[in-house]
Specification:
Elements lengths: L1 H26 L1 E3 L6 E3 L4 H17 L9 H15 L12 E5 L7 E4 L3 E5 L9 H16 L2 H27 L3 H38 L9 H8 L5 H8 L4 H18 L4 H15 L5
Parallel strand pairs: 3-5
Antiparallel strand pairs: 1-2, 4-5
Helix pairs in contact: 1-5, 3-4, 4-6, 5-6, 6-9
Length: about 290
């Protein structure tokens, strides 16, 4: 009798699990811009925007935000607006962005959040020393937003937690393993096998899309890897730099990818030399405070 009840329970859990898996596989499929990678999204852009805005407010609440007329703020905003203005129309995304600089020389970091927020910590200026290099950092973060990586992470968490809960209950019913222990083991396995590699995939995509934005805005695509080379050089002595790099692909792989993608972007923008020269000329005049 007990065996029959266990079998029925396991069958019921199996049906629920299979139904959920089918729904996630078929009904939530989405395609990442540019890379065409297929992933699953269960969140709306409106929900992502609310979560993102809350995260930015919470982060900046205790941060030392530089005034909008500070030289660093003006530079970052000008670079960001140039990237946004010359982004390929096929990218989509917000037409107006907000760019904030936080004063923290010990924090070489930057992040972006939907729908249109980019935050750069002043510690990044130690590694990104030219406008082209800072453009590569900002464009990378904008790439995360354009690819809806926040929505993907939220979706992974929602679907992953639901899946782990169901599987732990199934393991408890069939094998007699404690549901709590099964949940813990499955959660660890999910993090190692799925979550961490997927996070690295998102970083690669942000690098790729960022280079597309850099090329579209006529910044130097070959400057993109300089910032990460400098951070890599200090990784052994600077824990903040090491922390930033730990969530990204390996340095060697990243430089190799950027080199190959830079050639692709240069080919795509061939024939725009005159246009880019004019964009850079106007940028230089604006940077010096002259009227355009």
């Amino acid at each position: 009798m007990a065996s029959s009840s266990i079998t029925k329970g396991a069958t019921g859990m199996g049906i629920v699990t299979a139904t959920l898996a089918y729904y996630m596989h078929v009904k939530t499929v989405d395609e990442v811009p540019f890379t065409k990678r297929r992933r699953h999204l269960v969140t709306s852009q409106e929900y992502e925007a609310k979560v993102g805005a809350m995260a930015v407010r919470s982060t900046l609440k205790s941060a030392k935000v530089l005034p909008s007329d500070h030289a660093a703020s003006v530079t970052v905003r000008s670079i960001g607006e140039r990237l946004a203005a010359h982004a390929p129309a096929s990218v989509g995304g917000p037409k107006k962005w907000s760019f904030t600089v936080v004063s923290d020389k010990n924090q070489p970091n930057a992040f972006a959040s939907p729908p249109n927020h980019v935050v750069l910590y002043s510690g990044m200026f130690k590694y990104g020393r030219t406008e082209d290099e800072i453009a590569s950092v900002i464009a990378h973060e904008m790439g995360h937003v354009l690819c809806r990586h926040t929505g993907e992470k939220l979706s992974d968490e929602i679907m992953g937690s639901a899946g782990v809960t169901l599987l732990s209950q199934l393991a408890s019913t069939v094998f007699g393993i404690g549901a709590g222990a099964a949940y813990e083991w499955l959660s660890v396995g999910r993090g190692l096998i799925l979550t961490r590699p997927n996070s690295r995939n998102m970083e690669r995509e942000a690098d790729y899309v960022g280079l597309k934005l850099i090329g579209g805005a006529c910044f130097d695509v070959n400057a993109a890897s300089n910032t990460f080379r400098r951070m890599q050089a200090e990784q052994g002595t600077n824990s903040a730099a090491a922390g930033y790099l730990s969530t990204h692909p390996g340095h060697g792989e990243r430089v190799k990818n950027m080199s190959a993608w830079a050639k692709e972007v240069i080919r795509e923008n061939k024939g725009r030399e005159g246009e880019c020269a004019e964009i850079r000329r106007r940028w230089e005049l604006a940077r010096r405070g002259n009227k355009i």
